[in-house]
Structures are given as structure tokens and as C-alpha cells.
Amino acid sequence: MPSAPIYLDYAATTPVDPAVARAMGSCLTSEGTFANPASVTHRPGRAARARVEDARARVAELLHADPEEIVFTSGATEANNLALTGVFRALRPERTRIVVSAIEHPSVLDTAHALAEEGADVVVVGVDPEGRVDPAVLEPLLDERTALCSVMHVNNELGTVQDIERLGALCRSRGVLFHTDAVQSAGKIPLDVHALAVDLLSLSAHKLYGPKGIGALYVRRDLPVGLVPLIHGGGHERGRRSGTLATHQIVGMGEAYRLAVERLSEDPPRVAALRDRLVELLTADGLGRLNARGAERVSGIASLTFPGVVGETLLYFLGDLAVSQGSACGAARGESSHVLKAIGLSPLEAHATIRFSLGRETTEDEIARAAALVRAAVQDLRRRAPRGEASATEHRRAHGHD
Ligand code: PMP
């Protein structure tokens, strides 16, 4: 019987918490809160609206924001698109510069590049070998021509935590709006939008035991510009994002965030200890090398390079282990990682890099088994082809899978 796969890809997505699934289920059928939350003229509609507003309050609570500062979107991709495009279109032609870091998620980088077609002057700032933006590099780019600066809180491939407080304060002192993608930090690091000095912040539910297809953008209440909406229609979400509110998705996100707040002091330290154990096992005897090891890193992510091994082949060999090479989004496009390139890894090193991401359900036993599987596969590959070029067919034959 095949053994159960070990899931170490929580940064790509998480399973939905059973309590979240139950809450979502209660918004679908005729016995549940199925009515349109905009139909406030009748009781079922008002009941749905109340559940949406309760969820909004839960999301706001995690950020120490006001519920009215939360705009629900279809996910963080849309939230990032709305933040950059909405601000740029509101501030042009006076302010056309958009400053982003080189390690942003494609939903930030590609949006910025798409806005270049509309006249944006996009400046991509590099990072140090640990994946950090140097405020001194940012500073000269922040002036009266700058519409927005966007730097992510936690990088999804490396786990590097950015000093958002400092970058946010710098932008504010220069009168420049600041956005951060907090998809990978929400629920793992305490978030306070006031301390972080952010104007806009993107969130997703599915990295935090909520459903896919729902996210939010925090928009500071006294933002000096009116965000130009991307989606036009019935004027939902204070005109910022039209479309019938997806009650079940929103309620799921609210419940996931409520649980995250409850578990914030418990989950991250436990996960960090497991991550440290995994790194210890995988770097012993020079097997692998931890990336961004000098940076503050989020609890659940470890990026390791196994020199001399081809990542795709290694992944193939690790059939029972669900991990990623770079990010799931990069995998969808079949591209090598722009993040690993930005921290100075060569294409060969980038290809020899695996992201392990741990979560709420990860156990000590899984970590031990995962480390043993990786060690055996890396050693096997290195033995067969000193440059890691053993073919998958060869391995399958050797291990009797053919
Ligand atoms: N930003 C980061 C840092 C992410 O990791 C992801 C998910 N891969 C996103 C944005 C996009 O989020 P969503 O899947 O909700 O669109």
C-alpha cells in the first residue's frame, strides 16, 4: 500500500480548517444564510449581511484595523492588482512612479509592468543576499513623482521578513503611499497596520486554513486618494469592488482569521521549532544549504539548496513528499525563480533549490520522515551523477517503480 504523502507545501496553500468548512456550509442551502447580503430590505438578507460584517470584523481584528477599512476581493492577486492599479490611476499624471522590490509576487510585479503600458515609470529595487530591501536604496526613489511603493512583508519562497515598519515610516515621511503584501505573514506574525505604517495591505484566506478564491485589501480610512476600482457594477464594498458578496467565502475567511488570532501565540513557535529541526537534519554533513539564513524568517518556510542536484529530478524522486521548487505560481508558469535570482543564486543553484513549508498539522514524525527521504534521494542522485544529471528513468528502475 502506498504510504501517505507528507504535505510540506503550506505556503502554496493550506487545508481548510474543519470549523471553517462548517461555517461555510451554513451559508449555502435553504436552511442556511444563503440570501444576498445586499438584500437588506428583508430578514434573510439582513442575516447574510450580519455574517459578512462579522467576518469583516474578524479580518480587521487580525490587523488592528477598522472593519470599514477591509475590502473583500477574490484573493490576494486581485487585492494586489487593486492596490497598485487603483492608486496609480487615481494619482496620474502627477505621480507616475511605482517602486516595487525584485522579490514581489507576480501579482505585484506583473501589475506594475502592465501599468507601464499606461505610463507608469516602474522602478524595481534589488534585495540583499538575505532577501531584504535596503531603505537607503528606496529613499531617493520616494518623492513627489512617486505614486506608490510596494514591498511584501514575508517572501513566499525564502520566508524572509521585511522591516515593514521602517519602510512604511520612510514612505510616510516622504508623503508616498505604501502597500505591503501580507499573504505569508498574516496569522504567523502579529500584524498592526498602525505600527507598520501601511496605507494598503493585501490578504488571502487560503494560506491560513481558509478557502481559496477570497482575500481582502486593507485600505487606510483616511487615504488621501480615492482608489479607482477595477471591477465596476453594483457599487459593493463602498464602490471599491462590485460583485455580489460571496457569503460562504467571506464567512470562511472570517472564521479562519478568528482561529488564527486565537492561535497566534501557539502555532508559530511550534512550527518554527519543527522548521529548525528540519533545517538541522537537512544541512547536517553538508547535504543542503539554507537560504536567507541571516535574515529574520517566518516560522513555516525554509528554502534549501542542494548543490549538484537538479531540483526537478529531486522532486520527482520525492514522490511521497509534497514540496515546491520555488513557488506554486512560478511552477504554473514553468519559470525559474526570480526571487532566487534576486538573492544572487546562479541558475544551477536556483534549480537545485527546494522550498519546504510547514503548517498547523505538521508533526515531528513527518519532519523526520521527510528529512530521511530527502537525504536518501540527494545522496542517491549525487552518487549516480556527480553533477546531479541522473535521469528520472534511471532512478525509477533502481527503485523498482518501472
Ligand atoms: N502574494 C503572495 C506572497 C502569495 O504567496 C500568493 C499566493 N501564491 C499571492 C500573493 C496570491 O494570492 P491568491 O492565491 O489569494 O491570489
Describe this structure in words.
With 402 residues, the protein is an alpha/beta fold. It has 2 domains: 6-13 and 265-398, Aspartate Aminotransferase, domain 1 (Alpha-Beta Complex); 18-263, Type I PLP-dependent aspartate aminotransferase-like (Major domain) (Aspartate Aminotransferase, domain 2, 3-Layer(aba) Sandwich), CATH 3.40.640.10. The chain is built from 15 helices and 12 strands. It has helices spanning 18-25, 43-63, 76-91, 106-116, 135-138, 164-173, 193-196, 247-263, 267-283, 311-317, 328-333, 338-342, 347-351, 364-384, 392-398; strands spanning 6-7, 70-73, 97-101, 121-125, 146-150, 177-181, 200-204, 215-219, 289-290, 301-305, 321-322, 353-357. Strands 2-8-7-6-5-3-4 form a 7-stranded mixed β-sheet, with helices on both faces. The chain has a 3-stranded antiparallel β-sheet with strand order 9-10-12. A two-stranded parallel sheet has the order 1-11. Helix 1 runs antiparallel to helix 8 (247-263) and helix 3 (76-91) runs parallel beside helix 4 (106-116). 4'-deoxy-4'-aminopyridoxal-5'-phosphate (PMP) is lined by residues 75-77, 105, 107, 152, 156, 181, 183-184, 204, 215, 327-329.
